[in-house]
Amino acid sequence: VSEITGVSIRILRYYDEIGLLKPAKVTDAGYRLYDNRTLEKLQQIMFFRELEIPLADIKEIMEHPSAYGFRITPDQLYRQADCKEVTVNGPVEDWATWAKNQGTTYMALREMNPWIRAKSLPNKTGKSYTVLVPKAGAQLRSKQKVTVHDPRWVK
Fold first, then answer.
1. Are strands 129-134 and 25-26 parallel, antiparallel or unpaired?
2. DSSP-assigned beta bridge partners for residue 25
3. How far apart are CA 6 and CA 124, in angstroms?
4. CB-based burial of residue 21 (10 Å sphere; 0-12 exposed, 13-18 middle, 19+ buried)?
5. Comparing C-alpha atoms, which of 5, 7, 13, 17 is closest to residue 32?
6. Residue 149: CB partners within 8 Å, gap ≥ 6?
7. Per-residue pLDDT tens for 34-86?
8. In this structure, is the dihedral angle defined by the CA atoms of residues 97, 100, 106 and 112, taken in order, positive or negative?
9. What is the pTM assigned to this prediction?
10. Do 99 and 105 form a contact (C-beta atoms < 8 A)?
11. Cα separation of 79 and 44, whole Å?
12. Do the beta carbons of residue 66 and residue 56 sit within 8 Å?
């Protein structure tokens, strides 16, 4: 997670320590494992950090979103474009070129995969990454079923 998000292991451990971002699971060896839900929460935290909001305030906002005006109606929810999943097992030297070869743009690729934070993916270990690529002709806002990631944010 640290490698793909740019958030250091030390910071991830600190977020766990203060209760801001708990991993989905901790292995017997002490490794913190994160699922899609916790990665989405990390994305929210990173957004608030970009706005220079203190961690204590971020935690408060995320625990009580309606108290801070973060309540939306279901029709306002983001609808992701229809995508195909592409598995990447090796390094990606340039995401923009990779996106073009997949028939999309770097901007659309980044929108579908917020975990892509750098221009390349070294992937020295050969780990498998699943990349969402918009299908040809897909609108960036599709009629696909809406997913509610945090029900406290929806009226």
1. unpaired
2. 33
3. 16
4. buried
5. 13
6. 37, 40
7. 888 888 889 889 989 989 999 999 999 988 888 888 776 666 666 667 889 99
8. negative
9. 0.50
10. yes
11. 17
12. no
